[in-house]
Specification:
alpha+beta; GMP Synthetase, Chain A, domain 3; three-stranded mixed sheet; globular
């Protein structure tokens, strides 16, 4: 599965979010930034991303999923 396909699946599940995907073999780092994560725990945020890609994890297309979720303010602070 290519990165653009993963981006589209996550954007469908989490509209209004910015999505960045890095692929290394069948390991996927998925970074999602959106207001939807405001007030949620890290686990809840990751679950939202996992849910969007669940079928592809279960069928083995995605072997390792590393979801990272941030609010826009958190992401801006990380950028510098």
């Amino acid at each position: 599965m290519e990165a653009p396909e993963v981006v589209e699946l996550v954007k469908e599940a989490l509209p209004g979010c910015e999505v960045e995907v890095q692929v290394d073999g069948n390991h996927y780092l998925v970074v999602v930034v959106g207001e939807v994560f405001e007030g949620l725990t890290t686990i809840k945020r990751q679950q939202m991303i996992n849910k969007a890609l669940f079928q592809h994890v279960m069928d083995g297309t995605i072997h390792a999923l590393h979801p990272k979720a941030f609010t826009p303010a958190e992401w801006a602070a990380r950028q510098g």
